[in-house]
Input
Amino acid sequence: MTIAIETQDLTKRFGDVLAVDGLDLSVPSGTVYGFVGPNGAGKTTTIRMLTGLLQPDRGTARVDGVEATRRGKLAETLGYLPAEAPLYDELTGREQLQYAAQFRRLDDGDRVEQALVQYDLLDAADRRVEGYSTGMRRKLGLAQATLHEPSVLILDEPLNGLDPGATRTVRELVETVSDDGTAVMVSSHDLTTIESICDRVGIVSEGELVADERPDDLSTGDGDRDLETAVLELTDQ
Ligand SMILES: Nc1ncnc2c1ncn2[C@@H]1O[C@H](COP(=O)(O)OP(=O)(O)OP(=O)(O)O)[C@@H](O)[C@H]1O
Output
């Protein structure tokens, strides 16, 4: 079994705030991994260290065996969608993906058109991004993050602000990408969706991992405790 995402003793402090505190994560390839916890628990800070955007004070982060500090190499294996998709409002959806393809030096000219179809954006492909809804922006962000067919995909709050239909679309896209063998890490407060799409769930509280289990094991077999209750209990809320 290969490891898609691994951190060892990962630590980051901002002044008096210990945002991430000696975090040890190990996410096997092919897994959809839910990364949950209360506001300020350290999820985004962890993700920013995994994507090489932030230097840890201590410890290491690796994605598909690549040290997160090697950003050039990391870009080949990692797809990352931050909470606010990095899009240019003045471009059309197609131009945005063409720009990303150029940036990534993808030779396959069909890849952009395939992505527009896969992410159900063909009808909107020639409209400027500034007119896109939250759900359309998220789909375009996902299309951009997966254009190079990464082996690991990290999504920070991909479900935020989405209506049930758009939530389902993103959920299905995660499942499709995962079926193709990509490991997906999803941070979210939508615990119902996390419970339904994730193979494993890591719960962070005050920068520490307090649980790392299958959703069924966290929510207990007797049906009395769902994931939301488990998260509330384990994070002392
Ligand atoms: N650039 C920064 N400067 C100062 N403090 C920061 C910075 N980034 C994060 N923090 C602090 O680190 C802690 C963890 O923040 P982080 O954004 O990682 O939490 P989170 O789990 O992603 O929260 P949320 O669910 O609210 O998005 C918080 O106390 C936050 O205020």
Summary: The pocket of adenosine-5'-triphosphate is lined by residues 14, 17, 19, 37, 39-45 (CB under 6 Å). The mean pLDDT is 91. The chain has nine helices and ten strands.
